[in-house]
Amino acid sequence: MLPSPNLGDKRVMSHASSPPPPVLRFAPSPTGLLHVGNARTALYNALFARQWGGTFILRYDDTDTARSSDTFAEAIAEDVAWLGLAPDRVEHQSRRLGRYDEAVARLKALGRLYPAYETEEELEAKRQSRRRRGLPPVYDRAALKLDAAARPALEAEGRRPHWRFRLDGRQVVWDDMVRGRQGVDTATLSDPVLVREDGSYLYTLTSVVDDIDMSVTHVVRGEDHVTNTGVQIEIIEALSGWVPRFGHHNLLVLPSGEGLSKRLGHLSLRALREEGEESLAVAALAVLTGTSLAVEPVASLEALVARIDFAKISRAPARFDPAELSALTAATLLHLPFEAVANRLAGFGVGGGEGFWLAVRGNLARLAEAADWWGVVEGPLSPVVAPDDAAFLAQAAALLPEGAWDSDVYARWIAALKPASGRAGRALFHPLRLALTGRESGPEMKTLLPLIGRERASARLRGEPG
Ligand code: GLU
Question: Which of 198, 304, 346, 389 is most buried (CB neighbours < 10 A)?
């Protein structure tokens, strides 16, 4: 467990020798299924932590009780595990309300949090009136000017306050790990509401309190959070005085250019999993798309760890093409060692070992198709024998080698069959494949034949199910 420093402690990072191991977090709200864009954020955080021997926290931003659900939280845990990520620590904001109470008390004591009483309708009317006057629709801070008598009068009307953070109104700058020097002028923003009328807390506050408490060193998230960061740095500085590093990556978009939405269920990890996409292909595409690195299949997450470099992420949106994903799934399977798939193959009822896997992995669009090839190996299958080929196939059966059926049995067989039959090329090979596998194409026969075995091969060549 990391120490939980008191809010308000001025923590000083040691600059001596090597920096301490980083702490990163992925902080989804359990309000929907994760999509590939969320996977991109999760992977950047988790793999960066792995690269530097750091800590990866999965944090549920679940203070919005109306929209959060345990079912989505469980689905997120499942999806994160499917991606191959094992959080070092799991946190739930809903279990940390006491810490937010303390932060709120501190911000009030510092004079940075002030009560405001406007209703949503009143705020909307203010925004419209400012727009009509050509002014930006930011909050006019009327509540800051309320005098001592005004508050009880408003509360007597039955109003309850929400609480706003008083921004400094300055240029907040940081050195973004992806975007370089960034600045947000908080004078152009409304003072953010941190506590709702019903006393519940908003993400802008809870996220900052957690990042401080959990000693998060690097906040890596989508570029839709850049403005938030300007605001949150002000809050962090008010509470702690030490600011983590920030990195805002570009967002994934659909091939049409449309943004991904959790709510609309775009490209959810669950759907991709059910469609048989490989998690490593999803991870490779989610991490490498929209960077200056080539998108290519990887055989393990470790291979992606080595490629995590925030400076290589581009500024333009990254297009995520499901068709590219399918191709990458097939290419990934070709790279996977038997150990990586053994359990899943067994789950599909595949009894074959490494030899079978190496024989078929180059012919799969989806792992589940390995079961079809296992059916071809194990049989029984009805061989395809054209009448014109029957005599040739009977001859081929008679010439099946005796003795050990090792890796060169096919070569020995063909060496005998070719001169005996006088056939060559397609006329030689195609009828053999059709009879032995019942299919037009597939893995190399030299790898399949030893697996099919002499008995089944002999039956199939004679046109009998085997
Ligand atoms: N719950 C926020 C989100 O899903 C987290 C953003 C952050 O990383 O701070 O967008």
Answer: 304
